[in-house]
Specification:
Layout (H helix, E strand, L loop, with lengths): L2 H15 L3 H13 L3 H13 L7 H13 L4 H12 L3 H9 L5 H13 L7 H13 L3 H13 L7 H13 L5 H11 L1
Length: about 190
């Protein structure tokens, strides 16, 4: 992102904060007409969430796809989230695959393989994706790795490694994972 784009995006974000929604949208739309992949991305997010404008998933999908195709890979993660919301799992899988450098995309891909949504169930492939995701900073993946190690789900059982990953998830405040760890502790 060049300095001018950064300034314009920051200006639009500040306008949103002070409730100058129409002006902010206008700034982003003007930038989008000049093929700013960042402005197109921002508009896509806005239409996906429906916070400042009426929610429009079709418009969001088109904008996010355009931004991604213009080279802003982060768009594919948000687009994948949109497809999950619409329960279009194959499309979600394709979008996350286009953004595998994002640990959260890897995590989402892992979940798709784990549950067999948009692809065949493969707990081993899910484990590999979760492992890469965790190594790259996604703490949510730590829970899944811990669970899979502890129960030997898609990988050779290793209760000690499982506990270590579960503790890591708990320390990072990953929600709802205290329950599984407490269950494991009472079974020891």
């Amino acid at each position: 992102m060049n300095n001018k784009e950064f300034e314009e995006i920051s200006k639009a974000r500040n306008m949103f904060k002070i409730n100058k929604v129409e002006e902010a949208i206008e700034v982003l739309e003007n930038m989008a007409q000049k093929k700013s992949k960042y402005a197109i991305f921002e508009l896509g997010k806005i239409y996906k969430e429906g916070v400042y404008v009426k929610k429009d998933l079709l418009k969001a999908e088109n904008l996010l796809l355009l931004s991604g195709n213009l080279g802003y890979e982060k768009s594919f993660y948000i687009l994948g989230q949109l497809y999950l919301e619409k329960k279009e799992y194959r499309n979600a899988k394709r979008s996350f695959e286009k953004n595998k450098s994002n640990p959260y995309s890897e995590y989402e891909l892992g979940k798709l393989y784990y549950y067999g949504k948009g692809c065949s169930i493969s707990h081993h492939k899910a484990f590999v994706l979760f492992l890469d995701s965790a190594k790259n900073g996604c703490v949510l993946a730590s829970y899944m790795i811990g669970y899979q190690y502890y129960y030997g789900d898609g990988i050779r059982m290793n209760k000690e490694k499982g506990k270590l990953y579960l503790i890591k998830a708990i320390r990072k405040r990953v929600p709802d994972y205290f329950n599984i760890y407490n269950r494991i502790q009472t079974n020891c």
